[in-house]
Design brief:
Number of strands: 7
Structural class: alpha+beta
Helix content: 25-40%
Number of helices: 6
Largest sheet: 3 strands, antiparallel
Bound molecules: iron/sulfur cluster
Distance between the termini: 79 Å
Length: 204
């Protein structure tokens, strides 16, 4: 009899523990129901890259003066600037320009330091190819502007999930004119300017 009661006690205890663990698991499940969806049906849907996104570099051949500043500031001396000196006009003439995006780390140094602004970073991030040598873009390939996610008729653009309005759960139906969550950079600057902190020497 005692053995039977002991077995029943063990059974009830284990059933209680199982119910507790099921409850914990369901709590995690229900918690996810209150969270924002993070699934994007790529490539039919794409997130709109942020304004300062550092994607594939665009090059404007006519603006380049072959100064090679981009090569010197590049951490791996990556851009290849092929030029010839024209003795008649005493100027360098650009023959070709290339960057191997299979090696580039998209740091943006070349774009920052180019004196004629002939380099710019685009929002293109999808650079998949079968042969990595195809990622060595010449000036013609670099001169092509990518199709914007917002203008691509094949793609449904989605706003970045972090920018959804507060409390918004469904990213697919949010209007582009709706207010973003959080503060804009200019608002943070305005706040900092209107409430300057006293210098360290004054506060001591
Ligand atoms: S983005 Fe950076 S790594 Fe790429 S070419 Fe420019 S400087 Fe070099
Ligand atoms: S820094 Fe700009 S102008 Fe100079 S070689 Fe590079 S791309 Fe051309």
């Amino acid at each position: 009899m005692m053995k039977f009661l002991s077995q029943v006690g063990d059974y009830v205890k284990e059933a209680g523990q199982a119910a507790k663990y099921i409850g914990q698991g369901m709590a995690v499940t229900f918690d996810h129901m209150r969270r924002r969806p993070i699934t994007v049906q790529y490539p039919y849907e794409k997130l709109i890259p942020s304004e300062r996104f550092r994607g594939r570099i665009h090059f404007e051949f006519d603006k380049c003066i072959s100064c090679e500043v981009c090569v010197r500031v590049c951490p791996i001396n990556l851009p290849v600037v092929d030029w010839e000196f024209n003795a008649e006009i005493k100027k360098k003439e650009l023959r070709s320009y290339s960057i191997d995006f299979g090696v580039c780390i998209f740091c943006g140094n070349c774009v920052e330091f180019c004196p004629t602004n002939c380099l710019s970073m685009t929002e293109e991030y999808d650079l998949t190819v079968y042969d990595r040598h195809q990622l060595n873009f010449d000036n013609v390939a670099m001169g092509r502007m990518p199709t914007k996610v917002t203008e691509d008729p094949m793609v449904t653009p989605l706003r970045e999930l972090a920018y959804l309005p507060k409390g918004e759960m469904e990213p697919h139906n949010v209007s582009h004119t709706e207010r973003r969550a959080g503060k804009r950079p200019e608002e943070i600057i305005d706040e900092a300017m209107s409430d300057p902190k006293p210098p360290a020497s004054e506060s001591e």
